[in-house]
C-alpha cells in the first residue's frame, strides 16, 4: 500500500498567529509564540490539512503534493 504524503509550509512573515490551524489540527500545526509552525514538514494526505490552509486568515499555509501546490484552494 502506498501512503500519500504532502509537504506543509507556513510563511512565518505572513502568519499572524491566529491559531486556527492549530485548533483544527494540533497534531500537524503548532502555535509557537506569535506564529504557527508545522509539527513536521511532511504530513499524511488529509482533506483537513487543506481545510486548515483554506481557513488561514493570512493565507500563510502552503500545501504541496509532489511539488504541485494544492492548498490553499481558490
From TrEMBL:
SUPFAM superfamilies linked: 4Fe-4S ferredoxins
**Cofactor(s) required for function per UniProt:** [3Fe-4S] cluster
Q: Which InterPro entries would you find in this protein's record?
A: 3Fe4S_ferredoxin, Fe-S_cluster_ET
Q: Which UniProt keywords apply?
A: 3Fe-4S, Electron transport, Iron, Iron-sulfur, Metal-binding, Transport
Specify the domain of life of the species encoding this protein. Answer: Bacteria
Question: So what does this one do?
Answer: Ferredoxins are iron-sulfur proteins that transfer electrons in a wide variety of metabolic reactions.
- Tell me the protein's name: Ferredoxin
Organism per entry: Amycolatopsis melonis
Amino acid at each position: 500500500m502506498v501512503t500519500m504524503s504532502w509537504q506543509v509550509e507556513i510563511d512565518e512573515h505572513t502568519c499572524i498567529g491566529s491559531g486556527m490551524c492549530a485548533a483544527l489540527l494540533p497534531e500537524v500545526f503548532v502555535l509557537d509564540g506569535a506564529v504557527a509552525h508545522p509539527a513536521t514538514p511532511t504530513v499524511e494526505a488529509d482533506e483537513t490539512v487543506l481545510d486548515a490552509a483554506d481557513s488561514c486568515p493570512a493565507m500563510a499555509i502552503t500545501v504541496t503534493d509532489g511539488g504541485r501546490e494544492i492548498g490553499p484552494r481558490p
